[in-house]
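Take a look at the protein record below and flag anything odd:
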Amino acid sequence: MAIETSPLTRKLSAFVKLSVSELGVLERLHERRKSFSAGRDLVHQGQSEQAAYILAAGWVVSYKIQPDGSRQIVDFQVPGDFLGLRSVLLHTSDHGIEPIVEIEAAEVLVSDLLQAFAETPRLATAILWAVSRDEAMVVEHLVGLGRRDADARVAHLLLELGVRLSLVGMGSKAGYACPLTQYHLADALGLSAIHVNRVLRKLREGGLVTFREGLVTIDDYEGLVALAEFDPAYLDHARPLLP
């Protein structure tokens, strides 16, 4: 895949028009691209001395294991996202990262990042924007767990994923491919898998959205937005701050 059409380039281009030299630095960051199998942690909770990654293809889940052994999914990562960047800068990972499907990701060392930031300050600012946006999503997820009912939680997450995927050319208001299971949704939304199943059936029968066989089909976008009270402002898309 040409760097101009890579998911990360598409994502950062919503913030700033990248120059030829900045694209060259991005291409260099993608040089150590590898495949990783589903179900095998890319980063373990508590791990130190690890690299960060740029997710180029596939889906990843970030999660924390609780003392009782239960799992709380913190977020889902899609192509164009950084994996483990905060943990690299803080030296120890406070969460695990697991591929949901086979993925392709580019390994990025701290030295790679520091050199890239020194060479291209605008690119560094764009990456900071992307990471800050990802942190804003985690805050929104906390609000969802504490304040939204089950129907709104599921609807909000499906809408958010659609907006994120549309930014990298992999989704639209009509829908998107999605490898998540009801168990993934349950672990992320603080619900049981049975409850998630009931909510999805209710949303489908209400003519709002259908999630079946790895495909999310949004049948009534405005209706789903109204149910979730979804305001995408926290995703901060396409508001360029740099010339």
